[in-house]
C-alpha cells in the first residue's frame, strides 16, 4: 500500500521558519518528480515547488527565495524548508510524487494527506 506521510506543519509567527517532510513508502516504481502544493480556504490548490529526479528545482514566484525543496532518494523523502513565513502562507500543504513503471511506461501519481501551516501576524 502506497503512503505519503507528511510532518512538520504547525503554528509559527510571521518571519519564522518551518520544515515540512513527506516520506513515501510502498512505491515500487522509479520515483520521478516530487513536489509541494498548498491550498488556502476558498482558493485553488497552488503548485509551490518541484524537484525532478536529477535534482532540478522550480518555484512559484510567491515562494521563490523563501522556500527550498530538497529530496533524499535513499529515504524516498521530500522536504520543504520554509523561511520568512508570512500570514498569507497559511494553508494546508500537500506533497505530491510521481512514479513510473519503466516497463509499461505507466505514470502513477500520489498525494499526501496534507499538513496545516498557520502563520500568525
Order of helices and strands: EEEEEEEEEEE
Number of strands: 11
Total of helices: 0
C-alpha Rg, in Å?
14 Å
State the distance separating the first and last CA atoms.
40 Å
Give the mean pLDDT.
95
Largest sheet report: 7 strands, mixed
Query: What is the general shape?
Result: elongated
User: What level of helicity do the residues show?
Assistant: under 10%
Parts with pLDDT < 50 across at least 5 consecutive residues: none
Strand content: over 45%
- The structure class reads mainly beta
Describe the protein's topology.
Elements: E1 3-7, E2 10-13, E3 18-25, E4 30-39, E5 46-51, E6 57-59, E7 67-72, E8 77-82, E9 91-100, E10 107-111, E11 115-120
Parallel strand pairs: 2-11
Antiparallel strand pairs: 1-3, 3-8, 4-5, 4-9, 5-6, 7-8, 9-10, 9-11
Q: How does this structure look, described?
A:
The termini are far apart. The protein is elongated and about 50 Å long. It has strands at 3-7, 10-13, 18-25, 30-39, 46-51, 57-59, 67-72, 77-82, 91-100, 107-111, 115-120. The protein contains no helices and 11 strands. 0% of the residues lie in helices and 57% in strands. With 121 residues, the chain is mainly beta. Strands 2, 4, 5, 6, 9, 10 and 11 form a 7-stranded mixed beta sheet that branches. A 4-stranded antiparallel beta sheet has the order 1-3-8-7, with no helix packed on it.
